[in-house]
TrEMBL record:
Keyword Mitochondrion: no
Cellular component terms per the entry's GO annotation: membrane
Coiled coil: none
Protein name, entry field: Amino acid permease
TM segment ranges: 14-34, 46-68, 101-124, 130-148, 155-178, 198-220, 232-255, 275-296, 333-352, 358-377, 389-410, 416-435
Origin superkingdom: Bacteria
Organism per entry: Candidatus Levilactobacillus faecigallinarum
Annotated Pfam families: AA_permease_2
Alphabetical keyword list: Membrane, Transmembrane, Transmembrane helix
Recorded topology in the membrane: Multi-pass membrane protein
Subcellular localization(s) per the UniProt record: Membrane
A Gene Ontology molecular function term of the record: L-amino acid transmembrane transporter activity
Length: 442
């Protein structure tokens, strides 16, 4: 039995296009379609709003360039969890993984699925009671797909990523070449008071850019990860940066600032209806649904890998079961089922949006630690060759660190009770860590 277990390992079968689709697909969900108004209101003017989307992308790109150096040196399953363990030791690695598998991962899946359920109910004119069953049904179907060989989930990710690009391309082309309004000549200040300032606008875009690092959870399944992982992260973030900036420019070129302010989250739907008629709004909704399904698929592919990696190290309760790999598909089926079951419970009984928001603070704390880790690794490995080196060092990681610190400080200022609660959630993992450590030394 032990020999059989040793022979069953994760398939290192994902190529560049699969990795790239995961980066783009896990970032582009609904944020770019629904945050136009909030970013504009906070920035105060269309020009500053566009700059916020661009700078948010630049900060994210510096983060990607920094993580790419770390990931190329540690091409293992688990991503951020593995990086923290290798740089700072098992204790800090465990806490970063604990936070992701206990709340952040399931809550992110639940919040996307819950919002998708709302869209599906509206799209098919169903009763509101269908929302939860549809949300759970979608994640069950996607989870089932991901219990086959990873190439099936990767292929689905490529298809949905291509599908979500269609409405984005349509918005960009129509906004750039057929817009007859010029919102850049207006100011939100003429309509209402700015709701937070330029810093808050950048913060909103950073959340819309988040998710790119999840591809690192599949480091043990990517072919030649020392080369392909940095390429996928850097190109993927760059493509999202260009897409987000051009979509924002297209909308601002077509719809006046005052109208965007009053439309709120319906800005993009209004754009589609005005540009393409009523059927355009329906098609855009389909595009958003496809976008969110692809985003869900990326999360469901990646988060169970953290559970698997921690269970392989015997750091979780029921580690033997959670580290099980199906001998035919080489997929962590038990870890996937547990993550999806937990997400389904959140959909039924909790507000997953609030739960996922609570962990933003701690996620960015671990981001900062990993960015700082680039400096530590270079000192430890002075003179050693690296598969990938962050360009413009040390400026690039310093920008990434400052960007993450900006998020942390903003979270403390805007939601101190939530920050304290998120720290409590992480702290609960401390006795679990020492309990498992004691059991392993017996």
């Amino acid at each position: 039995m032990q020999d059989a277990k040793q022979e069953t390992t994760l398939n290192r079968s994902l190529g560049f296009w699969s990795a790239l689709a995961l980066v783009v697909g896990t970032v582009i969900g609904s944020g770019i379609f629904f945050k136009q108004s909030s970013v504009l209101d906070s920035a105060g003017s269309p020009g500053m709003a566009l700059l916020a989307w661009f700078l948010g992308g630049v900060i994210t790109l510096t983060a990607g360039l920094t993580i790419a150096e770390v990931g190329a040196q540690m091409p293992h399953t688990g991503g951020l969890y593995v990086y923290m363990e290798e740089i700072y030791g098992k204790f800090w690695g465990f806490l970063s993984g604990w936070m992701q598998v206990v709340v952040y991962g399931p809550a992110i899946i639940a919040s996307i699925a819950a919002y998708l359920g709302i869209l599906l109910v509206g799209f098919f004119n169903l009763d509101g009671s269908w929302q939860a069953p549809l949300s759970i049904g979608v994640i069950v179907l996607i989870g089932f797909l991901n219990m086959f060989e990873n190439r099936w989930g990767a292929a689905f990710q490529i298809v949905t990523t291509l599908g979500k690009l269609l409405p984005i391309i349509a918005i960009i082309i129509f906004g750039l070449f057929f817009g007859d309004q010029n919102a850049f000549s207006h100011s939100v200040a003429a309509v209402s008071q700015s709701s937070g300032g330029f810093g808050v606008a950048i913060l909103a875009t950073l959340f819309a850019y988040d998710g790119w690092i999840l591809v690192a959870n599949l480091g043990g399944e990517i072919k030649n990860p020392q080369k392909l992982l940095p390429q996928a992260i850097i190109l993927g973030i760059s493509l999202v940066l260009i897409a987000y900036t051009l979509v924002s420019y297209g909308i601002l070129h077509f719809i006046p600032a005052e109208t965007i302010h009053h439309l709120g989250q319906q800005t993009t739907v209004y754009f589609a209806n005005s540009a393409f008629g009523t059927i355009g709004g329906r098609l855009l909704n389909i595009g958003i649904i496809v976008s969110m399904v692809g985003c869900l698929n990326g999360k469901i592919m990646t988060f169970p890998r953290i559970v698997y990696a921690m269970a392989e190290r015997r750091q979780l309760p029921f580690s033997k079961q959670l580290s099980y790999l199906n001998r035919k598909s080489h997929e962590p089926i038990v870890a996937t089922v547990c993550i999806l079951a937990y997400a389904s419970i959140m959909i039924l009984f909790f507000n997953p949006d609030r739960l996922s928001d609570l962990c933003i603070f701690t996620v960015y704390c671990f981001y900062v630690a990993t960015f700082v880790g680039v400096f530590l690794l270079r000192r430890r490995q002075k003179g050693s060759a690296r598969p990938f080196s962050t360009p413009w060092f040390p400026i690039t990681p310093l920008v990434a660190i400052l960007g993450a610190l900006f998020v942390i400080v903003s979270e403390i200022g805007s939601d101190l009770p939530g920050v304290l609660l998120s720290l409590l959630i992480v702290a609960i993992g401390i006795p679990v860590y020492y309990w498992k450590r004691q059991k392993m030394t017996r």
